[in-house]
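User: Here's a chain of 461 residues. Predict its fold as tokens.
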Amino acid sequence: MLSDREVTNTLNMLRNEHLDVRTVTLGVSLFDCVSHDLELFIANVQAKIARYASQLVPVCDEIGAKYGIPVVNKRISVSPIAVVAAPFGPEGMVKVCKALDWAAKEARVDFLGGYSALVEKGFANGDRALIESLPDALSQTERICSSINVASSRAGINMDAVAWMGRQILGCAKASEAADGIACAKLVVFANIPQDVPFMAGAYLGVGEPDVVINVGVSGPGVVRKAIDRLVARGSNDKGEALSLLDMAEVIKRTAYKVTRVGEIIGNEVAQRLGLPFGVADLSLAPTPAVGDSVGEIFQSLGLSSIGAPGSTAILAMLNDAVKKGGSFASSSVGGLSGAFIPVSEDSSIEAAARNGCLGMEKLEAMTSVCSVGLDMIAIPGDTPASSISGIIADEMAIGMINHKTTAVRVIPVPGKGVGEEVSFGGLLGSAAILPVPKGDCSTFMAFGGRIPAPINSLKN
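Assistant: Prediction complete.
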């Protein structure tokens, strides 16, 4: 039960602090849809998605209205298509992707994730077909998202996959040139990808997951910032002592607890109404381009001139840890990524810091060692060599592999544009100035291929 003060506090979060449930994601296993006949497989897939997803959007809207807490996005994740559509070549994969896009449109969801391949240790035939199809598949569909896992702490880094993905990212940019390379915004390269992520573009339903499941992604960077601002305005902690970073961490932790409880209540009720199991609450702080809904603004509340200033990595480490501690106390079903995202184009404060030179690729990479994901939604020059993109991916995969954490790369080479020019992707994807990539040539290194071995602690069981 909540006290009157806590009820009032939550109402204020809704009214003034951008509290929402960022996504309710319906996970649907497609393993029982498998067939060697392409048309039969597509029919099976579309029928199963329609059976379970037809009521997702209206139920989310009804429950959001009931509690006065909007569910911003409704999404679907499916089994890795490289596995369930393994019999089909690249052309068949494109047809499957279009069929999934149609199913997503019929269900009126925002995105469908799971056009995915897990190739950290090597390629199966389905993996090769799916990766080869990426430029056509993602440029010819609107709602499909793709994730490719190329590294893990147990398997090491598949450098052949890293090199190929550098080329395919450029291919996706060229195929969607008329829309400033937007296909790349739907493609992310991972190390240690979780099986239950509800956020896009990385969402897919892992092999160990239920047949159908509801996962929820909660957010609330604006709520966290306001809580810090109130504490700073008060000038002292509950004991009347001068504020310290321990007090800041404590208020972040308590706020994350409240936000997670809200998300889990919504997710559980959606699951009950649909007659499905509830999976996880991903308590990641996911920003939007709206002012007041920014992870970057939290850094200013904690005393920096902007994100990117010295001290940014330390603050991000504290923020990530406090969010996880608060969320884990609020729920026994925490999963996904759960921490703080730093997507450049999707966060107005981070984008502004990048635009004015306070935040570059090198600092962003350093911060990914302690954040929840990695280099996210970064626009780069369209003439960036594929080997440089692959080198950026390799560096990020190494951070994930060595630190036993999830890392990812979602960069967008914008065709025909260079450093300092602007690009707008619309909606939650936001806009950004194009950042320079680190100078130097890594093409000879990337040409070696093979696999970077996993660290010795991968032998733990």
